Amino acid sequence: MRGRKRSFEKYPPCDRCKSSVHVVGYGKRSNKTSEKQTYYCKKCNHKFTPDDGFKGVRFPPEVILQAVSLSTEGFTLKQVVEEIGNHYDMRVGESTVHDWTKKYEHMLSKKELSR
Q1: What is the CA radius of gyration of the chain?
Q2: Do 65 and 44 belong together in one domain?
Q3: pTM of the model
Q4: Could you read off the pLDDT of 58-104 as tens digits, one per residue?
Q5: What's the domain count of the chain?
Q6: What confidence tens digit (pLDDT) does each residue in 25-62 have?
Q7: What are residue 20's DSSP bridge partners?
Q8: For residue 67, which of 86, 45, 49 has the smallest C-alpha distance?
Q9: Whether residues 39 and 68 fall in one domain
Q10: How far apart are CA 33 and CA 87, in angstroms?
Q11: HSE-up of 81 (CA within 13 Å, CB side)?
Q12: I want to staple 33 with a disulfide (CB 3.0 to 4.6 A). Which of 19, 51, 60, 100 is the partner?
């Protein structure tokens, strides 16, 4: 037997055919905010990056989760925008923070919400 044995649990299933047996690592892709592992499915010849819940967002996930955390802790939208601006040196609108809170509130653990 050539090569080493693969553990299939560490590879995500393909977006198209849902197979994880034929998936291999295919390098990394990066954008302004992060670097992500990409994968290739040998069964259907599909290159993909698994969705981590932040697909297509403009701001880094850390900023989004911090804003949502502050919002759920009782800060007003104006205070959250000001805090994000001071801490991360980014301009974020109040409506954006409101939308993030509705969309990503479930990602915060119960522990963070009870702080």
Answers
A1: 19
A2: no
A3: 0.71
A4: 899 899 999 999 999 999 999 999 999 999 999 999 999 999 999 99
A5: 2
A6: 999 988 777 788 999 999 999 999 988 888 888 899 89
A7: none
A8: 86
A9: no
A10: 16
A11: 12
A12: 60
State the Cα–Cα distance between residues 1 and 82, nearest whole angstrom.
60
Q: What is the DSSP letter of 51?
A: -
Q: Are the C-beta atoms of residues 15 and 46 closer than 8 Å to each other?
A: yes
Going by C-alpha positions, the residue among 53, 51, 49, 31 that lies closest to residue 40 is 49
Q: Is 35 helix (H, G, I), strand (E, B) or coil?
A: strand
Based on the domain organization, do 18 and 42 belong to the same domain? yes
Name the one residue in this structure whose structure tokens are 């609108």.
93
| Per-residue confidence band for 1, with pLDDT thresholds at 50, 70 and 90 | very low
Closest to 75 in 3D by CA, of 57, 99, 54, 101:
101
